[in-house]
Amino acid sequence: MQILIAALIGLIFGVGITLGGMINPAKVLNFFDIAGRWDPSLAFVMGSALIVTAIGYCLVWKRPAPVFEAKFQVPTRKDIDPPLIGGAALFGVGWGIAGFCPGGAIPALGLFEPQAFLFVGSMLAGLYLARTLRKS
């Protein structure tokens, strides 16, 4: 049942990203092009997501426990370490260069966009490399 609910939530997220136009890398890159063809729609999509998330957190934290778990799994680390900074920087640079983030690239696979396949393949290779380097 957990997998079905997770799949449904992922589908809803993917539809929202698609309807917001965030699977189009040109639309995302235009958000970063402040001096040229600036497109503020990404800010509206992110702002809407923040509002929905805030409401969701308010509702969820009133519950004694999650529906499918005994307790909430909340991160306890609060430090900012080099892997966090490096990962965030790499994510930002990659997003700025490619116009894709994982949330937009995965739904774009359904449109058979070659750039999405290249991005997702590179992302998976990077995840594998990071996991391999972390183990050594």
Structure in words:
- The chain has 136 residues and is an all-alpha fold.
- It has one domain (2-135).
- The chain has helices spanning 2-19, 25-32, 41-60, 82-98, 102-109, 114-135.
- It is globular, with a radius of gyration of 17 Å.
- It starts with a helix and ends with a helix.
Keywords, separated by commas or semicolons:
136 residues; mainly alpha; 6 helices; 68% helix
Order of helices and strands: HHHHHH
Number of strands: 0
The helix-and-strand class reads: mainly alpha
Strand coverage percent: under 5%
Contiguous uncertain segments of 5+ residues: none
Give the C-alpha Rg.
17 Å
Helix content: 55-70%
N- to C-terminal separation? 36 Å
The biggest sheet, with number of strands, parallel, antiparallel or mixed sense and barrel status, is: none
> Shape from CA axes?
globular
Number of helices: 6
What's the number of structural domains?
1
User: Whole-number average pLDDT?
Assistant: 90
InterPro entries: DUF6691
Keywords: Membrane, Transmembrane, Transmembrane helix
Transmembrane segments: 44-61, 82-106, 112-130
Organism: Falsigemmobacter intermedius
